[in-house]
Amino acid sequence: MRTINSSDANCVASLDLPAKAGDLAGVLAANPRRVQLNLLRDLSADELAGALADGIKDTSSAEQAAAVKSQTEQLLSIMKSVGQAKAGDVVTMDFVGGETRIAFNGQAKGAIGGETFNAALMRIWLADKPVQPDLRKAMLGG
């Protein structure tokens, strides 16, 4: 797997793929794929969940967001079940077998089915207008 790391104020994000991909379409064609978030500061469950839900909303069209509303609610529930996240904690989101498997510090927390949901999740970091453009560039190796 190929790993690219980049950081923002909250975490170091890594994208793991079997081979290099230069854009979102290439990432979505790769299986398996992983986004890993290594937290750099303490975050409440609401902050962690909210950041992911806001990222989906901000990088999806209204139709795309509506299509994954129930899965986004599942994601919120899974993230909130984590409770307080501390600096040094690790969140992984693996797309394998048609579902996004979420783990916290190596412990499985839940799985959310569907390519459409995973595409919405990947858009947070890799859309043409992602939440953080320099992170997109770094994750795609550009």
Could you walk me through the main structural features you see in this protein, from its secondary elements to its overall organization?
- With 142 residues, the chain is of the alpha+beta class.
- The chain has a single domain (2-139), classed as Chalcone isomerase (3-Layer(bba) Sandwich), CATH 3.50.70.
- Helices cover 42% and strands 28% of the residues.
- It is built from 6 helices and 6 strands, in the order ββαβαααβββαα.
- The protein has helices spanning 24-29, 45-59, 62-67, 69-82, 115-126, 133-139, and strands at 2-7, 11-17, 33-39, 90-96, 99-104, 107-113.
- The protein has a 6-stranded antiparallel sheet, covered by helices on one side.
- A hairpin with a 2-residue loop joins strand 4 and strand 5.
- Helix 2 runs antiparallel to helix 4 and helix 2 (45-59) packs across helix 5 (115-126).
- The longest helix is centred in the middle third of the chain and has 15 residues, at 45-59.
- It is globular, with a radius of gyration of 14 Å.
- The two termini are 17 Å apart.
**How many helices does DSSP assign?**
6
Taking Cα atoms only, what radius of gyration do you get, to the nearest Å?
14 Å
Number of domains: 1
Major sheet description: 6 strands, antiparallel
Stated plainly, the CATH topology is called Chalcone isomerase
Principal-axis shape: globular
Instruction: Decide which structural class fits the backbone.
Output: alpha+beta
* pLDDT averaged over residues: 89
> Which CATH architecture is right?
3-Layer(bba) Sandwich
Order of helices and strands: EEHEHHHEEEHH
Distance between the termini: 17 Å
The count of β-strands is: 6
- The share of residues in extended strands comes to 25-35%
Q: Helix fraction? A: 40-55%
CATH class: Alpha Beta
**Low-pLDDT residue intervals, each spanning 5 or more residues:** 1-7
In which order are the strands of the major sheet placed?
1-2-3-4-5-6
